[in-house]
Amino acid sequence: MHTQTACDALANGLCLELRYDGFSRVVEVHAVGTTKDGNEVMRVWQVRGGSNSGERSGWKIMRIDEAFSAHITDEKSEAARHGYKRGDPAMQWIRCQI
Fold it and tell me: From what superkingdom does this record's organism come (predicted)?
């Protein structure tokens, strides 16, 4: 997956469907950027799908290089979700955000 795909989903107000940690997930992208360690990540609200933690929905930070596949869906995103704050502290550099 590329960061541009995540930014395009955010810019178009659409959900992103991806395979991550062996699970299919549908997410709403809120921010995409790079951590201080140089990892490209996205802050998302997971709408539905599986999870290693067992939490099928809620806030997640996902490494872009760990997403096996991703495509933008026709499903409208409800971002920004309650609790979102611009300037995500998990990211040293932000490429795109709500």
Answer: Bacteria
